Amino acid sequence: MYYYDKTFDTLLRAFNLAHYYRYQAIYGFSVNAPDGNIVKAEKIIQMFKTKEIRQGLKSELYHSCRCNLFSTAKDFYSALDTLAECGYIAYENVTAANNKKLRWSM
To answer: CB atoms < 10 A from the CB of 40, how many?
Structure first.
């Protein structure tokens, strides 16, 4: 019976520690709001998945992903650059007929 009491006590302390660190993590994430660029990048990924877009030129992608979230093309391209930095998309140098330079692919 003594062994059971010690095991239960240890388990109870472990749960209390986990509970404490869980609330510390929740507080830490609630203090720092996500960057607006990250939210826009997530929206781009959702649009690509729903429209089943796998590759294309940057300007074509901007026209296919227009919404109220991107007020200018610069906002869209900065979100695309964020995705490229994180490794979600890859840029490829291509010269198209009208000298458009960058194409991306997932």
So the answer is: 19
Amino acid code (one letter) for 15: F
CA dist 73 and 5 (Å) reads 64
CB 56 within 8 A of CB 17: no
Q: What pLDDT is attached to residue 97?
A: 67
Torsions phi, psi of 30, nearest 5?
A: -80, -25
> Which residue reads 């964020």 in tokens?
82
Lowest mean pLDDT among 22-31, 43-52, 83-92: 22-31
Name the β-bridge partners of 104: 56, 91
Q: Count CA atoms closer than 13 A to 67's CA, side-chain side.
A: 10
pLDDT number for residue 18: 92
